[in-house]
Amino acid sequence: MIVFQFNFAKHIFPVFQKVFFAKRISILSPFLLYFYEMPVQRYIPSNPKKSAYIVGSTFLFLYWLIGFDGITFSDDVYYLLAGNKFWDGTMEFNEFHFSTRWGAYVPSGLIGFLFGFDPHRISMISLFSYLGTLYLVLKILPKDCNPWVLVTWMVTQVYLLHFLTKVYPDSLLVFWTILIPFSATFRSKKPFLAALGLISGLFFGFLTKETIVFLAPLPLVLFIFDWKRGNQNRRFYSFLLGLGLAFGVIYLGYFWIKFGSPFFHFRSIQEGHYPWEHSYYDKSAWVMLNRLTILPIVTFIERSYWLWIVFAIPGLLKIWRKPASPGVEFGLAFLSMIVLLWFMSTNFGFYNPLYLNPRHLIILIPVLAFLIALGWEEWRANQKLKRQLSGLILFGAAVSLIQQDWKMSVFQGTAFVLLYLFQGKKLVWATGIYLLFPALFAIQYQLKIKQYPTLIETLDRETSSSENPSLILTNNFLNFSKEVLLPENQIAQKLLFPIEKLDSIRLTPPPKLRVFIYDYYRHAYPKEQVDLDALEFWLKENYKLESELNEGNSSIRYFSKN
């Protein structure tokens, strides 16, 4: 039972609030300060797992509450609108494979249907997914493992937290991914429920996003493992086969009846591939070789996944030396995911490995956190293994130095120092605080570069002004997102015009127009600079500037024709 008090909050918390949370957290200050000043045991039960879950889930909730920085103006726009249309009864399923990712937008759309169309509110579905995932991994964690280690590494990964406040299939897939190895651990004791849970994870995961196939080999690998050890678990595999066939027939049958082909969805995925900067099948052999060798490692280092993988190694070694449930299921799940993520093609017609978007990797975090907790005492008791982990950490820091990524090199170098500076429980708490800082800093960073509330306020004002109903030329990604930014206001939406379609108004330029530029494009969509340069050249030739207004990181300029 934890008996110390967080009295240091009297001195640290005000500074912490000013630096990281600014105005957003100020409304929570009295509550949090009061909570931190009191002994923790008044609020947290003595059961370590329950205590860890309460703290972890509370942190996730507060991060969701405070860390919302707006939409990403990308795929999330589609899922938000699709969910809204589904529950309005106007959603059309077509050849665009996103349209049949029901698991990605039906649950989130239900929240919008019940509580209103608000991106932050709708992102509660991601919070529910993470809370459910944390519950499952803690429940299955062996009693001799430290649940605080698991929670520390589960709830502090920057990208996992970034998508906590977003509506993306990847954040929902986190739950379905963990349900699969979790269910497999009960295959001997509860064969039917285990089979149902595993098939449900694969089935509903596939309805959410196709990358769940990274875990598709797990049942076969488990069967081979059980067969070699003489534990055939025939009832489990019989249920698994039967349920798999039943779910498969229902899924394929729907597409056969609806679209005339049971493989309609797979064909739409195939046809959805096209050459772009992050595809590999249309690039040189050198680019492909780089993707299959060095690039995954560099990506793990750049995107702060490297430490999670390094500290999961002792857990994998423990499983190798002494295979036991639930370690085996989670170890095999990780190996299945990492191998297919590294090598699997996203297309049946040609070889094209998955683009390593950091968003695609967040499904690894719960499994890695479990493996880290499983092997935490292994490397602490083995100095040789500790030195090997230290070497891998320094390797990551060196790669970051070569790339001149100073923040990441310091981040990983600090991990090396902590290994030798702290021991025992102090190391767990020091690691938690150390991992917490980048996660909290990310909130302030995103809030600063996006200034989303100011954007919405300025857009509302400009599009609702009856005195100046002129056309508004704006960023392409803002125009793409206008149904989310200006919901249920079609008149306002029609005023926005994307700069990429400038040619369509060159012949008949309007007498007056406004140019609304959101500076966030420099961070997220720098390629729009080409369209902006063309716009500036055209404006100089045809218009004169009447006035200009800056709101946050948005600029509005008013022009009249020469």
TrEMBL record:
This is 4-amino-4-deoxy-L-arabinose transferase. Keywords: Membrane, Transmembrane, Transmembrane helix. The chain crosses the membrane at residues 52-73, 124-141, 192-225, 237-257, 332-351, 357-376, 388-406, 426-443. The keyword Transcription regulation does not apply. It comes from the Bacteria. The keyword Transmembrane applies. It comes from Algoriphagus boritolerans DSM 17298 = JCM 18970.
